[in-house]
Amino acid sequence: xxxxxxxxxxxxxxxxxxxxxxxxxxxxxxxxxxxxxxxxxxxxxxxxxxxxxxxxxxxxxxxxxxxxxxxxxxxxxxxxxxxxxxxxxxxxxxxxxxxxxxxxxxxxxxxxxxxxxxxxxxxxxxxxxxxxxxxxxxxxxxxxxxxxxxxxxxxxxxxxxxxxxxxxxxxxxxxxxxxxxxxxxxxxxxxxxxxxxxxxxxxxxxxxxxxxxxxxxxxxxxxxxxxxxxxxxxxxxxxxxxxxxxxxxxxxxxxxxxxxxxxxxxxxxxxxxxxxxxxxxxxxxxxxxxxxxxxxxxxxxxxxxxxxxxxxxxxxxxxxxxxxxxxxxxxxxxxxxxxxxxxxxxxxxxxxxxxxxxxxxxxxxxxxxxxxxxxxxxxxxxxxxxxxxxxxxxxxxxxxxxxxxxxxxxxxxxxxxxxxxxxxxxxxxxxxxxxxxxxxxxxxxxxxxxxxxxxxxxxxxxxxxxxxxxxxxxxxxxxxxxxxxxxxxxxxxxxxxxxxxxxxxxxxxxxxxxxxxxxxxxxxxxxxxxxxxxxxxxxxx
Amino acid sequence: xxxxxxxxxxxxxxxxxxxxxxxxxxxxxxxxxxxxxxxxxxxxxxxxxxxxxxxxxxxxxxxxxxxxxxxxxxxxxxxxxxxxxxxxxxxxxxxxxxxxxxxxxxxxxxxxxxxxxxxxxxxxxxxxxxxxxxxxxxxxxxxxxxxxxxxxxxxxxxxxxxxxxxxxxxxxxxxxxxxxxxxxxxxxxxxxxxxxxxxxxxxxxxxxxxxxxxxxxxxxxxxxxxxxxxxxxxxxxxxxxxxxxxxxxxxxxxxxxxxxxxxxxxxxxxxxxxxxxxxxxxxxxxxxxxxxxxxxxxxxxxxxxxxxxxxxxxxxxxxxxxxxxxxxxxxxxxxxxxxxxxxxxxxxxxxxxxxxxxxxxxxxxxxxxxxxxxxxxxxxxxxxxxxxxxxxxxxxxxxxxxxxxxxxxxxxxxxxxxxxxxxxxxxxxxxxxxxxxxxxxxxxxx
Lengths: 541, 446
Prior knowledge:
The complex is a heterodimer of chains A (541) and B (446). Chain A is α/β, with parallel strands linked by helices and 541 residues long.
């Protein structure tokens, strides 16, 4: 067995029909290095890795392992060559145990094809002990937290003797604490001689852990960078033009409180209290950001306000008007703008034109409708002005909305929701899967809405976005409100709150850790008490 | 980087402060107690208990029901059970109401009923029903041994059909075409056995025929991504039409040359087959009957204890995960579906080589769909499917026996029994059953 492995991709091109996802990409992964592929969503990083892992066949180019050209017909070949991959969406069978998942495809058997899971359990224990993973081989995957599932994925690769480990956006699903642990694991793996290909668009993590950075934009390698490069530099390479990473936003000037949520509980069809007795309020001219790891009730809370949740108890008042029990249409007409978290599912109708999508909320109102007929001319006219105003990059408003890029689709949704006079604006994951350039624009629009005196509620699982936009931050954990803290609360405090610690404990813990870290590394973390959004702001992606 | 406070290791409790659980997917643990227990089981049991009390108890017949256990040729004789129908009905229905009350009590404490409650309830209900039906008949006496042995016999094609369903659905393909596979197997068995003058070759041919029908399903649903349900339904209609046509044009024209397959012999294992009740069930069967027991055990062991089974189940649950582990998803699917067809084909041969010795139009009579229900009732598990099929076979046999001994209940109502049991079983008592996650979803790479 080869101890180390040098991996080279030469001129890899992958076409899907007329779309070129990878255009003559060259990457060299040296043994024992953490090599980062940095690029925006849709830049072609995942496609490249799927080619490397044998899931896609390259249209052109070759893969070299230790200088020898190889062809991978499937993941089996890639694994045999010492390449392991942890996918962004875990490839684990939820109803199998850890051992069964690890064994799958590389089973040890007794005579007659009978499974020998004891052997697999032993291997899991070995790796688990070596890296301090603390994974029970007999636990069911669906009962495990995401962070542990990810470790199972890493074990899967290591059991197969992976010398190169590909991690595809591994931190997307993790809390900040889990992320720190993962970065530690990556360093540990590296010191044991495993090379890592780290795919990410989060500059902070990339800078922290990488040895080499290759930046990919629109399917092409645009250059390599040193991890010491500044975030602005890296971001500009990634986007292809100078971007400003920090939002210049004036301090909030909150006026009277017009939106109140009192003891709201949402009960899922399973009977689970997915939102559990939450109360908060938002003043006019203020942004409240709701933070939390995905799946802690944020989605349901936002939907409950809009009237999409069937079983919602408590009281939601907008200008003294009760919203609970009203239909979605009534809530929208009451002046609520709503950007759903998944634009392709809930925000747009992909096969409808951009112009039609822009009037989905007002299609039956003048001037877009007269009696039972619609006025296409008015709708197109409206589209023209909105497209200009929101900088939607499209040749025509009559194209199907599904043909737009993620960022432009989001601008269409935002344009529609902001085109009415609003008394409340809610945006869920306003910039998920959106390119950095559009993020800047969308954030500015949200702040502009606030400055017009609208109460704004942002739901985001991206801590950077929360810190960037919020005037106050509400953290949800398992459906409950952990606490509401002012803007400028440190990243580590927020991270601990997202794991369920109440704000006071989180403050104390983070301060302690901050001091401990500061003594080891003076440029490291900031004690929570003194950290400000400005101090943390330099690290945004 | 310090891990003292920023990164608590999940799973290692840290005294003195709330344990930060790292993410949201673990919501299950703390909210499990908040999840309300449904009213389904307590309410269903109560309703059935009251029905039993009124019909089987209060309005019960006054005769004594007699259940024979041994048949005359048995190894040793057991006396027949004689139950006064009225008293038996009252006692059993009171016990049932007791169980219902227990389920209701648990519900008020927000606890789910344990699994044995509905099982015991079903046994009691069936017993009370039997006593009521037999006690009210003109000749209030039946052979329990015969009833059970007949149930197993009627269940044979159902068991094969549902095993076929298990093999297909576990790998992610919905097999609605069980009916067509049974029918194809039955027809081919009759035809080939007659032509070769060997029922055994007929049996093999039935397996091939079932596999061929299944391959059509596999090719269209796996390769061409046609909706699996639609392909299945179309196949059923196609096989029905084709066998019907060949029957009336070929078989009926010359019955002796094309449609007299002869029967597979019943293999009687000496001594063992004379044990009362279980003897005839286990040790006095045709080859197809013995194959059924073997198939159930082999499929169960195969699915849950072998490498093959692990891969099959992975493909049916999460094909992408299987693919990334180097397993050929579509090939696995193709061969499993084909195997499933062969199993159903063998089941089909039962109609023409064991039950009667000729083919008639639509001889499978919708049993492929009952097999589908058995598969669901048996929760996609070969052994569960086996017992579910037995239950349906029992209902089927009961209605024919009860009609013979002359009950006050119109025979049309009795004929509904198997289907009524099917609906109740699948809709009411399955509880939370989870099909393989990828069942019915074609797999496309990327």
